[in-house]
Structure formats: structure tokens, C-alpha cells
Write a structure and sequence with these properties.
about 70% helix; about 140 residues; single chain; three-stranded antiparallel β-sheet; mainly alpha
Length: about 140
């Protein structure tokens, strides 16, 4: 993706600098799109997968194993706890994935700006994962 210098520099109107623009959108909107469309759904999906599938340190399909692991860790949700285990394991990841995919599709309809947002968002995720494994995994 080629970004011209004119697309990334600050707009100057009547000799006064206005805002930093990226493909016609200001920097705050750009960061907002990255966070709302890429980072938040990806983090939520990762959390659901970690809690629902790997909390008992074994990959298990049975939501009652997740329920018992959560109960052993001190999480007591009362009579809704079995419902929570099924929701966190099956339904919530599907719904988050749906929201994330449609958000990315909506961004890609915006052309070069959307592509730039998606690439930047996933680059941040990859950089974060690399930083974790390089610097913090063994601590």
C-alpha cells in the first residue's frame, strides 16, 4: 500500500495547521477505528477462548469441566454458573467473531483507509504477541 506524502502530512489551511490526516480522516478517528474494529474484538475473543477452552489446562469440549475449573478457582455465579460456562465456551466467541468479521468487512468497503486500519490493527496484535514471547514469557 503506497501512502503519498500528501495523505499523511498535516493539512494547512490559510497558513494555519489543522489536524493530522490519514486518508482524509483525522488521527483520532483512525486510532478509534483500529481499537473498535480490530483490537477490542480480538482481545475479547482471545479472552473467551482462554477462559472457555484452556482454563483447566486441557483442551476439553465439555462445558461442565470449564464450570468445575471456574468453581475451583473461586468463581461462584450461583445458579447461572452452568449457563455462563456454556455461553463463554460456545455462544460468546461466535458472536464476537461475527461482530469482528462484519466490522472488518465494513472497514474494507472504505478502500485504502480501511485496508490501512486493518493492517495497522493486526500489526499491533502481532507486535504485542512478539513482545510477550520475547520479553515476558519466562518471567
Amino acid at each position: 500500500i503506497g501512502i503519498s506524502f500528501g495523505q499523511l502530512v498535516a493539512n494547512v489551511i490559510d497558513g494555519k495547521e489543522t489536524t493530522f490526516m490519514i486518508y482524509g480522516n483525522d488521527l483520532l478517528s483512525y486510532i478509534d477505528d483500529i481499537c473498535n474494529t480490530i483490537l477490542i474484538p480480538t482481545s475479547a475473543l482471545g479472552s473467551c477462548i482462554a477462559i472457555g477452552w484452556f482454563i483447566d489446562k486441557k483442551f476439553t469440549v465439555n462445558p461442565m469441566k470449564t464450570f468445575s475449573s471456574l468453581k475451583n478457582d473461586g468463581l461462584n455465579l450461583g445458579k447461572n454458573s452452568k449457563f455462563f460456562a456454556v455461553m463463554i465456551k460456545y455462544l460468546t466467541p461466535v458472536l464476537i467473531l461475527t461482530v469482528g468479521v462484519f466490522g472488518i468487512i465494513d472497514l474494507l468497503k472504505k478502500g485504502s483507509y480501511g485496508i490501512c486500519v486493518v493492517i495497522t490493527g493486526f500489526s499491533i496484535i502481532v507486535a504485542t504477541i512478539l513482545i510477550y514471547f520475547i520479553f515476558f514469557k519466562n518471567r
